[in-house]
Amino acid sequence: MSTPHAVEIRELVKRYGRKTAVDGLKLTCRTGEVTAILGPNGAGKTSTIEICEGFRRPDGGTVRVLGLDPADPALKPRLGVMLQAGGVPPAVRAGEWLRVVARFYAHPLDPDALLALLGLTEHARTPYRRLSGGQQQRLSLAAAVIGRPELVFLDEPTAGLDPQARHACWDVVTGLRDAGVSVVLTTHQMDEAEKLSDYVVVIDHGRVVAEGTPRELTGAERQLRFRARPGLDVDQLLDALPPGSAAKESPSGHYIIEGQVGPQMLATVTAWCAAESVTTEDLRIERRTLEDVFLELTGRELR
């Protein structure tokens, strides 16, 4: 039975002793879309996902997954869950494990095809404990999607993967969405969220601090970026730019200029740098990225 929303969370609260990990969270994930949940370490992402998966119970609020309570046994065959680690017997062989998982579903995907898609065919007879971290990660992804679920939860699906494996995982996520499957993923890779997601939710300190499509969050404004020696006089550079412009050094040696970005601004900046004997590198015009938005919302300090 289809529902208008894959996940609906209202006023969710989760506490661990005196620490409140999730604090009145409100969140909706639409059916048939990829929703990325972003946030710094300790923001409440994993607690929220584990409650949706039925592994933890909330201390307050309501959660509905495909219209049901996450603890409802009827949800199990309809969900795919990829954990960050664990859940696979160390001695089981990769191909054997995937075939075992497939037997729990009425119409599973072909295990051999999934192994091939994720570059695991030659490791099908390798025990799980002897797989590399990236190979274990890919096997967990295969196990999460083999049952043709309606909704898939992916917690850091590409953590530790090399570029080739990462793109293979992206292809799987894109294929799920094209097939009408709802996907909820957490990731620290901002480019991954920007590329894959239809909707992005940024949470911090257990609450939503921003949400929208990647384009809505990043905006349409363009930026001029370049690298040069640290400590340029940004105020002096601003004096040469049109009124309404903004300039900052962030991080050290990296400069961002906003405003009426176009040929005239580009010429002004290059002329100023030449007059100041500043050698620039990687001078380019681009749109604000999701990483820029994330850092503006959550800060740059380590958690």
Present the secondary structure layout.
Blueprint: E1 5-16, E2 19-30, E3 34-38, H1 45-52, E4 60-65, E5 79-82, H2 94-102, H3 111-117, H4 133-145, E6 151-155, H5 163-178, E7 182-186, H6 190-196, E8 199-204, E9 207-212, H7 214-218, E10 222-227, H8 234-240, E11 246-249, E12 254-258, H9 263-275, E13 281-287, H10 290-298
Descriptive notes:
- This protein is 31% helix and 27% strand.
- It is α/β, with parallel strands linked by helices and 303 residues long.
- It folds into two domains: 5-217, Rossmann fold (3-Layer(aba) Sandwich); 220-287, Alpha-Beta Plaits (2-Layer Sandwich), CATH 3.30.70.
- The strands form three sheets. Strands 5-6-7-3-8-9 form a six-stranded mixed sheet, sandwiched between helices. The protein has a four-stranded antiparallel sheet with strand order 11-12-10-13, covered by helices on one side.
- A hairpin with a 4-residue loop joins strand 11 (246-249) and strand 12 (254-258).
- The mean pLDDT is 92.
- Its main location: membrane.
- Residues 7-230 form the ABC transporter domain.
- It is a peripheral membrane protein.
- It is found in: Cell membrane.
